Amino acid sequence: MKFQENSSTFFGERLKKFRIDKKFSQRQLADKSKITVSQISRYENGLSKPNGFVLQRLSIALEIRYEELIDSKFNDEINLEDFDISIQKARKLPKSSLLIIKEVIDKFIESDNIHSALLK
């Protein structure tokens, strides 16, 4: 999981924004995510960066995708035209590459299904 270049501060700002949007105190987020209040404070103040496991816990508690915490460009809406262009380009790749792409997509869908189930 890769952070943007200004990662600690950026992540902290995003975390605080989503926490406030949900009207959670740091204590409430800590209770929901099973992460200490002091650690959430360190994240929000840019003093620490979470690992992937913690990102998942926070995103589940906030009912968002973990990508939203680490990437300001993440948007739930996708330009389907761009997606179609990518698919057209992929079709021109060798069969071995297509098999890898298919496996990655399948794993992503499986992971997304698990994440969605955890949010319910």
From TrEMBL:
InterPro entries: Cro/C1-type_HTH, Lambda_DNA-bd_dom_sf, TransReg_Diox_bact_type
SMART domains attached to this UniProt entry: HTH_XRE (SM00530)
The organism's place on the tree of life at top rank: Bacteria
A GO CC term assigned to this protein in UniProt: cytosol
Pfam families: HTH_3
Keyword terms: DNA-binding
GO function term, MF aspect, one: DNA-binding transcription factor activity
Annotated ranges, domain HTH cro/C1-type: 15-69
Name this protein carries in UniProt: Helix-turn-helix transcriptional regulator
Organism: Pedobacter roseus
